[in-house]
Amino acid sequence: MIARRSPDEIEAIRAACQIVSRVHGALAERIAPGVSTAILDELAEETIRSHGADPAFKGYHGFPASICASVNDEAVHGFPRPDPLQEGDVLCVDVGVRLNGWFGDGAFTLAVGELAADVERLLRATQQALDAGVRAAVADKHLSDISHAVETIANEAEVTVIQEYGGHGIGRELHEEPHIPNHGAPGRGPRLQVGQVIAIEPIFSLGAPEVVVDEDGWTTRTKDGSAAAHFEHTVAITKEGPRMLTEPRTATIAAAG
Fold it and tell me: How far apart are CA 58 and CA 117, in angstroms?
């Protein structure tokens, strides 16, 4: 069953999401060659706690850090490390926040310096797929309409959907029903309803879809070593359309179709 939230509950989730946005902004300003993801993790935790919240990821099923920091071929769940970032790296930062018992979740991918053209295409396509998925998150549409919108962008850009991972419901728990694949035919699954809150998160690569998990049990990378990208917004389904709660200035955006 997909939970439906009251307007006050959505505002409580939004408050957590706004801290996610502030962390994103603080980290984006620091990401550069020579900076380690361990330093970024420290900054993220400091920022989260300074707003009276807790890092949602730290301790979650044993995860050791406040952010997921996935570099280059690491698709998701990368550990922050002391190694400095290098010119040309691709860094995905995923941030979760718990505030007053409510969760927010969001991710972005940035270039560290200059990127090759194909990697730029990957990042652009993944961001566009997130935007398309959000536009499809409309009351009375089917859940798989989001999946189809995301996959369509991947196909058009000739990048690959990493199918093992996808979006999810969010609210009182970090991960709730439903699971939202990043691929599939439209018009399937439950219909979206006003009050539902979901995290939409396309995860693409330049190569094959297969992934492997490192010995740490978390870091998931592309099997063929190709670059990966990951973007995510927490979104509320409203009468007016999809509302992005992880935007600094939360707005209702035009719906697809």
Answer: 35
